[in-house]
Amino acid sequence: MIYKIYYQDNLLQIPVRENTKSMYIEADSERAVRAKLKDRAFNIEYIQLLEGVHLEYEQAAPYFELEEV
User: How far is 26 from 33, CA to CA, in rounded Å?
Assistant: First the structure.
């Protein structure tokens, strides 16, 4: 399964929508995604499972790239 992770670079700063970034990770569950990212120092805002048409849409975008963790 492919997940889209919305995050902020700075763990100690208050989240600001304009600073939100995203990445894509392949994992078995949301818990597995969090385990893979626990050593990174950023604030995870939201983890979204991508399926079906939504996944196809994201894969067609030029910025889609699976992160190797």
Answer: 8
Q: What is the residue type of 47?
A: I
Cβ-count burial 33-45 (b if 16+ within 10 Å, e if not): beebbeeeeebee
Q: Does the predicted model carry a pTM greater than 0.85?
A: yes
Cα atoms in the 13 Å half-sphere on the side-chain side of 6: 12
pLDDT tens digit sequence for 1-18: 999 999 998 888 888 888
| CB-based burial, 5-28: b 16+ in 10 Å, e otherwise | bbbbeeeeeeeeeeeeeebbbebe
